[in-house]
């Protein structure tokens, strides 16, 4: 990519962001769009502008985001959202402090060097001369000037250690403050029990569970809820709910048809066959009403059968003291670790009920199988990503598809394609993966949605680093270096170090495209807005359907955090080699902080709350990026034939020691609740009946206050 193509990419991306920002300002002020731009506030019963100052200034949302506090974020979107902003702030701090030293230190050193840049040392494959002269590639082999880059490598590492330590302590304090809250949190009075051994003859699983935990916790045991196989009852429940929605829709259509010209209205009709498309034509309201009346007794009967005959070797235990519950979740209850496994309960909405009965050894086997599948996924994805990176260069496209040559040789088209084609191909390719990784994570037997999201996030991060960063870096020179690797397999490691500078402008453009276009689309919410209005006009007839149409969803940690981590990995690894990438990283995280602050306060609604459990996973990924950066610099200094390269080895050792120290000091509190935190006084005595009922799955929940039908699986105090 030449300098003009780079400026075209950067300039058009900036223009797109500005256009989208002004579009957001205009659209968000229209009352008909408030459901798309302020759903978080509306769901909380707040006016869209409550507490905000109305202004015609198109940048007013930026001021509102900047003046908001961490307490505002926690109040509107929970602790997990606040922890995500700790991550953004920490990374932004790392890059700002790195830039303050690296830019004034390294740019003059590189620019005044007299080295001749080889093709494989160019930051842009030999065509971006101005950038080459400001990079480490411009410094000659064995030059004493390389000491400046050694100092810079140490500076970035120590800044990262310091800010991560502060962040870990801060997040620990946030988690403690949330967990010691005087407000009653239902999950703090429950524990999950897995790996229940077979019940003795003459006892049900419920009776076995009750007797076991009453003996251990005689004063605080309240009752138990045995997990059941709900496949059949869920099917009936979903069918019933489907007919209720259809009935509400039919009634709304009928009410809408009553007008001045037709006061009696027109009763809607439907067909009794597949999807209402075939079969006998009947009155829709009467038909749905009859179906509901048929399904209700069927559901009640199936609930009784499920609770009595489909009990599983897992249960929820309710204790009337949260200190006891916290102690139980971190205690060994049996002499064998594969029976009576007790862990802290997640929020009821988080529990993956079908995973709870999976036994200890099956979970272990599944975990190893899933890891192997993920390994294969990463390995086999690396091949197409490498080829995509190589194929989407214009020279290779012209070789492979000669008929395109007259088109791509036109100056305007060539400039646009060079600016966007490889980056867009990569972004689209990556969009296909996250759901598959989340499915694999849940298949491991994980007990909660938040844990599954964290596991999927980790898999996606390592996939992104191995395939995007390493794959694209090597892929840029794939066609020219394949023969070299074939002749000398040992050249693979130095090849990576030599290939890194050649990918600098690709990643500069990739980062710019992500923050300008990506955050512009995030802020403007054009796609959700169009979908909402189409659904509202043509599909929605009831309030429930309308609410589903504008439901904003959550922040999407499983994909958002790995995407942010990929940018961090790229910027860290190039921070010393091509320091000009640092300002782009700062803009990415700074702009992301402002845009997402607005979205968290006004748009996104969290689907769960884990009280910061995601932070240790974020921390480990940041450290993985730092270690990769240090290893990359070690390899690149070796490629530069710098005889003092071994002075960087202590950095790798320090990083592993730092990870170990942080794990020993902080991690345990993120696995379970500290008793000192749980012992804080509540402002009211918890209503254990309410706590208990909050965990009953919707398909088993009784519409009546009487719970006698749950006697078989939901125990009572005796």
UniProtKB/TrEMBL annotation:
Please classify the protein's predominant subcellular localization into one broad category.
Answer: membrane
As for subcellular location, the record says: Membrane
One example of the protein's molecular function in GO is: calcium-activated cation channel activity
Protein topology in the membrane: Multi-pass membrane protein
Task: List, for all copies, the residue spans of the domain called CSC1/OSCA1-like cytosolic.
Answer: 188-355
Q: List the keywords (alphabetical).
A: Calcium, Ion channel, Ion transport, Membrane, Transmembrane, Transmembrane helix, Transport
Q: Gene Ontology cellular component?
A: plasma membrane
Sequence ranges assigned to domain CSC1/OSCA1-like N-terminal transmembrane in this UniProt record: 5-166
User: Which intervals hold domain CSC1/OSCA1-like 7TM region?
Assistant: 366-637
Sorted alphabetically, which InterPro entries does this protein's record hold?
Answer: Csc1-like (IPR045122), CSC1/OSCA1-like_7TM (IPR003864), CSC1/OSCA1-like_cyt (IPR027815), CSC1/OSCA1-like_N (IPR032880)
One of this protein's Pfam families, by short name? RSN1_7TM
Residue spans crossing the bilayer: 6-27, 82-107, 146-165, 368-391, 420-440, 460-479, 499-521, 565-591, 642-661
* Family label: Belongs to the CSC1 (TC 1.A.17) family.
PANTHER family listed in its UniProt record = CSC1-LIKE PROTEIN ERD4 (PTHR13018:SF100), PROBABLE MEMBRANE PROTEIN DUF221-RELATED (PTHR13018)
**In its UniProt entry, what is this protein called?**
CSC1-like protein ERD4
């Amino acid at each position: 990519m030449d300098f003009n193509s780079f400026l075209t990419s950067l300039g058009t991306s900036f223009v797109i962001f500005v256009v989208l920002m002004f579009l957001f300002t205009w659209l968000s002020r229209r009352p008909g769009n408030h459901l798309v731009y302020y759903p978080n506030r509306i769901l909380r019963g707040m006016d869209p502008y409550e507490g905000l100052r109305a202004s015609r200034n198109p940048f007013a949302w930026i001021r509102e985001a900047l003046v908001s506090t961490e307490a505002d974020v926690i109040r509107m979107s929970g602790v997990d959202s606040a922890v995500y902003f700790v991550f953004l702030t920490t990374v932004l701090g790392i890059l700002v402090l790195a830039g303050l030293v690296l830019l004034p230190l390294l740019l003059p050193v590189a620019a005044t060097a007299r080295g001749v840049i080889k093709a494989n040392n160019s930051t842009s494959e030999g065509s971006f001369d101005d950038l080459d002269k400001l990079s480490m590639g411009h410094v000659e082999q064995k030059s004493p000037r390389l000491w400046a880059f050694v100092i810079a490598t140490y500076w970035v590492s120590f800044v990262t250690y310091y800010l991560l330590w502060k962040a870990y302590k801060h997040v620990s304090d946030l988690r403690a403050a949330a967990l010691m809250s005087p407000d009653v949190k239902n999950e703090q009075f429950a524990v999950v029990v897995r790996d229940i051994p077979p019940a003795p003859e003459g006892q049900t699983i419920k009776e076995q569970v009750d007797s076991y935990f009453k003996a251990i916790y005689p004063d605080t045991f309240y009752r138990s809820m045995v997990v059941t196989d709900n496949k059949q009852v869920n099917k009936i429940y979903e069918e019933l709910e489907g007919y209720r929605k259809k009935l509400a829709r039919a009634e709304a259509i009928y009410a809408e048809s009553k007008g001045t010209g037709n006061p009696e209205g027109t009763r809607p009709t439907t067909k009794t066959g597949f999807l209402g498309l075939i079969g006998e034509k009947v009155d829709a309201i009467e038909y749905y009403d009859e179906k509901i009346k048929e399904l209700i007794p069927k559901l009640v009967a199936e609930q009784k059968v499920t609770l009595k005959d489909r009990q599983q070797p897992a249960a929820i235990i309710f204790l009337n003291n949260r200190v006891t519950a916290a102690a139980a979740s971190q205690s060994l209850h049996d002499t064998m670790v594969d029976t009576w496994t007790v862990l802290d309960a997640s929020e009821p909405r988080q529990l993956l009920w079908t995973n709870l009965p999976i036994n200890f050894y099956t979970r272990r086997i599944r975990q190893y199988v899933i890891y192997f599948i993920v390994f294969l996924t990463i390995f086999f994805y690396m091949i197409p990503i490498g080829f995509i990176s190589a194929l989407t260069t214009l020279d290779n496209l012209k070789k492979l598809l000669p008929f395109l040559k007259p088109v791509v040789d036109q100056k305007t088209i060539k400039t646009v394609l060079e600016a966007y084609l490889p980056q867009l191909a990569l972004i689209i390719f990556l969009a296909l993966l996250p759901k598959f990784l989340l499915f694999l994570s849940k298949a491991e037997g994980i007990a909660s949605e938040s844990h599954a999201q964290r596991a999927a996030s980790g898999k996606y991060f390592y996939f992104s680093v191995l395939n995007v960063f390493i794959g694209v870096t090597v892929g840029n020179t794939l066609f020219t270096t394949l023969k070299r690797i074939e002749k000398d397999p040992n050249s693979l490691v130095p090849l990576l170090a030599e290939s890194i500078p050649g990918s600098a402008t690709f990643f500069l453009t990739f980062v710019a495209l992500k923050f300008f276009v990506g955050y512009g689309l995030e802020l403007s919410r054009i796609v959700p807005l169009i979908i909402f209005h189409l659904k509202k006009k043509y599909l929605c007839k009831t309030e429930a359907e309308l609410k589903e149409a504008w439901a904003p969803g959550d922040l999407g940690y499983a994909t958002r955090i790995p995407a942010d981590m990929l940018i961090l990995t790229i910027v860290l690894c190039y921070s010393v080699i091509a320091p000009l990438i640092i300002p782009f990283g700062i803009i990415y995280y700074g702009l992301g902080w402002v845009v997402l602050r607005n979205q968290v306060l006004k748009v996104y609604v969290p689907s769960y709350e884990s009280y910061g459990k995601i932070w240790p996973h974020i921390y480990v990924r940041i450290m993985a990026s730092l270690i990769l950066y240090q290893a990359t610099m070690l390899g690149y200094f070796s490629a530069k034939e710098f005889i003092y390269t071994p002075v960087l080895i202590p950095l790798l050792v320090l990083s592993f020691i730092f990870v170990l120290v942080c794990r020993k000091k902080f991690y345990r509190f993120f696995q379970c609740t500290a008793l000192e935190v749980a012992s804080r006084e509540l402002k009211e005595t918890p209503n254990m009946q309410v706590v208990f009922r909050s965990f009953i799955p919707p398909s088993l929940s009784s519409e009546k206050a009487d719970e006698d039908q749950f006697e078989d699986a939901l125990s009572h105090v005796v």
